[in-house]
Design a protein that fits this description.
Structural class of chain C: mainly alpha
Radius of gyration of chain C: 31 Å
Structural class of chain D: alpha+beta
Chains: A mainly alpha (89), B mainly alpha (101), C mainly alpha (692), D alpha+beta (203)
Strand content of chain D: 15-25%
Helix content of chain C: over 70%
Shape of chain D: flat
Largest interface: B-D, 43 and 54 residues
Radius of gyration of chain D: 30 Å
Helix content of chain D: 25-40%
Number of strands of chain C: 2
Strand content of chain C: under 5%
Number of strands of chain D: 7
Oligomer: heterotetramer
Distance between the termini of chain C: 108 Å
Number of helices of chain D: 4
Largest sheet of chain D: 3 strands, antiparallel
Number of helices of chain C: 29
Shape of chain C: globular
Strand order of the largest sheet of chain C: 1-2
Order of helices and strands of chain D: HEEEEEHHEEH
Distance between the termini of chain D: 34 Å
Strand order of the largest sheet of chain D: 1-5-4
Chain lengths: 89, 101, 692, 203
């Protein structure tokens, strides 16, 4: 049981860190937003594993359902068009 | 039974440093916002981990507050970024230097 | 004292011209004669009140009243107060009389000539009269200084009345600056007197003692009760203060070497010249010395300087008057010369003589200026005497009054000037003969200069008369002069009468030679018996002069007293007659006189250029003071400001480099923050043993 | 058009070395930190001695783990855990269960089981409900909650204010009504996105 938990932790930790790194490293802001969604969801999994189920639910509701949607809107509003790359210095 | 708390701390540090990395390397204001979200989440992971470590719910309640504030921060932050974009035709944080010196 | 009606209303003497000033200033354009009527009414009122006061004073009363204390009520009371004693009462009458006549004359000189800016003119005349009357009434030196300054300001305004032309504007500035240069010393002297004695009163009252009295006591007791400065003993220190105050006197009364403003002041309107030079501004200096004569009488050194300055100025100015072409220039130099006589008298111990000459001079010099003004009207404002001639028949009133004034000026018996000038010279002579040592020598030297000046006075006066009125007219204007009206003639007649007979108030020679007692009215008048002014009387001054300064009158040097009087009077009268005769020989005999100035050779150039006084004073300013000031400026700009600016520039430059840190780019701040965090963690971790 | 995520690498990543260094430091510290096992939130505990009381306890709640199950216990005031007492009042968030610990078919131990979940406890803490139902330790946060409530309202208003702008004197806001006769090219999204380009004004 403890091993299974450790494996699950390691798995989701890898997902969390990888998608976080993806957020800051990818070229396209839109992809960053998507990676951010993955990272937030995997953090929610970590909450569940730490007996914080309510917090996990809130994480998904508030972050993925609210913050991420806002960011998505913003990203879409600020894209000049689909072909040119995103404003980035 | 549970995962060792220090693992969570390392995870939290990793996410936090990733967010910091984003802030240090990117110039897109939206990326800034996302990086800040990552850092806040790292803090939350920390809070929840210690909440479990001490068997005390305060950490979880604090994490809730953090979430609420993060949501508010994103709302205001995006408003600011929109105005920034409107005024500078850009979301590059280095461009908006009107108030410098 | 109090209770006398004349004294209760005395402030009105001053207030009336001031009210006139305010009224004319505000409403001049709507007043009859552009404000002249108000001025005439005010000065006439002042004259009546002054005469009333004079009569009351003659009855043996004096008056002192504190009007307003404006600072230091306990320790050093600085206040305004009025003081009416024989001297100030006499001066009040002179000033208000001359002011009234000048106002009347101005009707002819200004109004009838259609000048513009008349309300300004009359309001300034009002302020001028007010200032002078207040100065005369002042009961302390500080108040006197204030109104002394105000008089200077008014002279500046009036001399520069035609300020749109270059000459008057420049002359006004010169008068202001030169007199101000003297007043600078006066101010320091005033401060010195207040600091030394704790008061600047001329007159002792029940609660305060006058500073001349304090000075006398201090000298008697060896410096007790006063504060001296800079380590000087009381006598030396008092002399320094006296000389400082004398600086203001020399500036205002146009004594050598600060006399240069006065001839230039002729650029002002002629009635103003009459007012300034006869009764007000220039007289203020001499009046001031007379006012505090109790102080100067204690200081033989200062007295000697006064006497020498006066004698030298009298001679020096008279020589320059010999060659001038403009009628007013001649009068200007004669004014300087005559004030030299007054200073000579004061320095020579002749307090009454100086006052007497001040009075007679006020009359005949005002008369001469107004007469010259009349001639100038007639000549359409041409002042060159070589363009005149033959005006005797065309304007007889002007001629005869002018002649009376000239005879008085030249000192011909029995006109007023003879009596006063003779007394001046007599007093100096007897004190010079009687006093021992250097004092006597200095007085005799000063007397000699004054005596020689008599010759020049007679000459230039009658040169002026002959050139102006006698002979054939030399220009068309002189052939057909513009007539003058009653408002010009009336003041001339009044003053002409006074210039003729004013001498009777003090016919000392007659008294002494014929032995008629009691006709030296002025002596008696200035020697009142009242308690209040017991230290301000002529005989008190005489005692002080004798006891402290070692002045002794020796009237019997040439035998008896009457012999001395006759010798003195005969000498001066003879010299004056020689001067007159010389003038007649050169300019009066021929109907078409020629210029004889070329015979003077180098002297002519020297006199024409006024001994190069202006040049050397300008050189002092531009050749000496200016480079010094530039040097100081360079020091100030370069070193002092340089240090200050350097500090500012250093921080500015430093700031402009340091501000580069503030890039305004969030990333940089975040990087610095993170770097700081890393460093902090490392430090805390290593010291706290986290990495063990 | 969908594109694959492309990494953005290059020299601009150089400042990130600070972040990496920070991570290294923190990781070293955390690995070496002497943290023990977490306490966790247990559900039930065994009653050590069967002195059950019927009245409500007054002390804090705790939890004990036993045999894979977690039980809630109520400590009696400041006394030692030896004097464990469990109330059976239904008003208290504890239930009782008899458990056969020895496997002989006989119930030998009484367990007190918490009826309140972590989420419920969070609610009690957050709203400072001083309830008997609370079973986990923690502080109450009512004041902080209210403050954050206000802050959220402020943030919402601020966001709305930031997002709106004047367009020819008329306030155009995300929540405002728009005139229908406006040019079709100016959609709400474009107004918000490229606002200010039409009239050059920013507000």
């Amino acid at each position: 049981m403890a091993l299974a938990e450790l494996v699950a932790f390691a798995l989701f930790a890898i997902v969390t860190v990888a998608s976080s790194v993806g957020v800051v490293l990818v070229e396209d802001v839109w992809h960053s937003a998507l990676f951010l969604g993955v990272a937030l969801l995997s953090v929610a999994v970590h909450y569940v594993m730490q007996q914080a189920e309510f917090l996990a639910a809130m994480q998904i509701l508030v972050y993925v359902g609210g913050v991420l949607i806002l960011i998505t809107f913003a990203v879409m509003l600020m894209r000049e068009d689909d072909t040119t790359e995103v404003v980035e210095a | 039974m549970a995962v060792d708390t220090s693992y969570y701390l390392i995870l939290s540090a990793a996410v936090f440093c990733t967010g910091l990395f984003g802030i240090l390397t990117r110039r897109n204001a939206l990326l800034f916002l996302m990086s800040v979200e990552l850092m806040l989440n790292a803090a939350n992971i920390n809070l929840v981990a210690f909440s479990q470590y001490y068997g005390n719910l305060t950490g979880q309640v604090f994490a809730l507050f953090t979430m609420a504030l993060a949501a508010a921060e994103v709302a205001v932050g995006i408003g600011i970024i929109l105005v920034l974009y409107r005024n500078f035709e850009d979301v590059d944080v280095a461009e908006a230097a009107t108030m410098r010196w | 004292m109090a209770g006398e009606l004349a004294f209760d209303i005395a402030p009105a003497i001053v207030a009336l011209p001031f009210a006139s000033f305010l009224a004319v200033l505000a409403l001049g354009n709507y007043m009859p004669k552009k404000g002249a009527s108000a001025g005439i009414a005010a000065t006439a009122g002042s004259l009546v009140l002054s005469l009333f006061a004079l009569v009351t004073v003659a009855g043996g009363s004096t008056y002192q009243q504190d009007l307003f204390t404006w600072s230091g009520a306990e320790e050093v009371p600085l206040h305004f107060g009025i003081f009416i004693d024989p001297l100030s009462a006499m001066m009040l009458v002179i000033v208000s009389l001359i002011a009234l006549l000048v106002h009347v004359f101005s009707l002819g000189y200004m109004n009838d000539e259609g000048e513009t800016g008349l309300p300004r003119y009359y309001s300034e005349l009002g302020l001028f009269t007010f200032s002078m009357l207040a100065f005369v009434m002042a009961d302390n030196l500080l108040m006197a200084f204030m109104f002394f300054e105000l008089v200077g300001l008014c002279s500046y305004l009036l001399i520069g009345f035609w300020f749109r032309e270059d000459g008057p504007a420049s002359a006004a500035k010169k008068a202001f600056l030169v007199t101000r240069f003297g007043d600078y010393f006066f101010l320091i002297g005033t401060v010195g007197i207040v600091a030394t004695f704790g008061t600047s009163r001329f007159v002792s009252t029940e609660s305060h003692t006058a500073f001349p009295v304090l000075a006398e006591e201090a000298l008697a007791e060896g410096g007790h009760g006063v504060t001296t400065f800079l380590g000087f003993g009381p006598e030396a220190w008092f002399s320094i203060i006296g000389l400082l105050v004398l600086g203001g006197v020399i500036g205002k009364s146009a004594q050598f070497p600060l006399h240069t403003w006065l001839p230039d002041a002729m650029e002002g309107p002629t009635p103003v010249s009459a007012l300034i030079h006869a009764a007000t501004m220039v007289a203020a200096g001499v009046y001031l010395v007379a006012r505090m004569y109790g102080f100067y009488a204690l200081l033989p050194t200062v007295l000697a300087i006064i006497a020498l300055t006066g004698g030298f100025t009298a001679l020096f100015a008279a020589t320059m008057g010999v060659v001038k072409r403009e009628i007013k220039q001649v009068l200007a130099y004669s004014t300087i010369s005559q004030y030299g006589y007054m200073m000579l008298a004061l320095g020579g111990g002749g307090y009454v003589a100086a006052t007497f000459h001040l009075m007679t001079h006020a009359f005949f010099k005002a008369l001469l200026f107004l007469g010259a003004g009349s001639v100038i009207i007639a000549m359409h404002h041409n002042e060159d005497m070589w363009d005149m001639g033959g005006l005797k028949n065309k304007m007889p009133v002007t001629y005869y009054t002018f002649l009376a004034g000239s005879l008085a000026l030249a000192g011909i018996v029995p006109f007023a000037g003879f009596w006063s000038k003779d007394e001046v010279l007599y007093e100096v002579l007897v004190h010079g003969l009687g006093s021992a040592g250097t004092t006597g020598t200095i007085l005799l030297v000063a007397y000699a200069m004054g005596l020689v000046a008599v010759l020049f006075t007679g000459f230039y006066t009658f040169r002026m008369v002959f050139l102006t009125f006698h002979g054939e007219p030399r220009t068309e204007t002189a052939r057909d002069p513009e007539p003058v009206r009653w408002n010009v003639k009336l003041p001339l007649v009044v003053l002409g009468a006074l210039a003729t007979v004013a001498g009777v108030v003090n016919m000392v020679p007659v008294e002494k030679v014929l032995g008629i007692k009691g006709i030296d009215y002025l002596h008696q008048f200035l020697d009142p018996e009242t308690e209040l002014v017991s230290n301000l009387t002529a005989h008190h001054y005489e005692e002080v002069l004798h006891d402290v300064s070692g002045y002794t009158a020796d009237a019997t040097a040439f035998g008896s007293e009457s012999t001395t009087v006759l010798i003195s009077a005969g000498l001066s009268l003879g010299l004056a007659l020689v001067g007159v005769g010389l003038a007649y020989a050169l300019y009066g005999r021929s109907p078409t006189p020629e210029e004889h100035t070329d015979k003077l050779g180098g002297l002519k150039t020297l006199w024409y250029n006024n001994y190069y006084q202006d040049e050397y004073q300008v050189w002092l300013a531009s050749g000496l003071t200016l480079p010094l000031a530039k040097l100081a400026d360079r020091f100030d700009q370069g070193i002092i400001d340089g240090a200050v600016n350097g500090v500012g520039r250093t921080s500015l430059t430093g700031g402009s480099y340091v501000k580069r840190i503030q890039t305004g780019i969030v990333t940089n701040y975040a990087a610095l923050l993170a770097l700081g965090l890393v460093a902090l963690l490392l430090i805390v971790g290593v010291t706290g043993g986290w990495f063990a | 058009m969908t594109t694959r995520p492309e990494l953005r690498l290059g020299g601009h990543l150089a400042p990130g070395i600070i972040a990496v260094a920070l991570f290294v430091i923190m990781a070293v510290v955390f690995v070496g930190a002497p943290l023990g096992d977490p306490v966790g939130f247990d559900d039930a505990t065994a009653i050590q001695n069967e002195t059950l009381q019927s009245e409500s306890p007054t002390g804090d709640y705790g939890s004990v783990s036993a045999n894979g199950q977690t039980y809630a216990v109520a400590y009696n005031g400041s006394e030692e855990t030896a004097n464990v007492s469990v109330a059976n009042d239904p008003g208290v968030g504890v239930d009782f269960r008899e458990v056969d610990t020895t496997g002989d078919g006989q119930s030998d131990t009484v367990y007190a089981i918490s009826r309140t979940s972590i989420t419920e406890n969070i609610g009690y803490l957050m709203f400072a409900v001083d309830s008997d139902q609370r079973s986990a330790p923690g502080e109450t946060f009512l004041v902080a909650f209210e403050i954050i409530d206000m802050v959220l309202v402020g943030a919402l208003v601020g966001a709305v204010v930031l997002a709106r702008r004047d367009e020819g004197g008329e306030v155009v806001a995300a929540l405002g009504l728009r005139d229908s006769d406006e040019s079709p090219g100016t959609s709400a999204g474009q107004v918000a996105a490229d606002g200010g380009t039409e009239d050059g004004g920013d507000n």
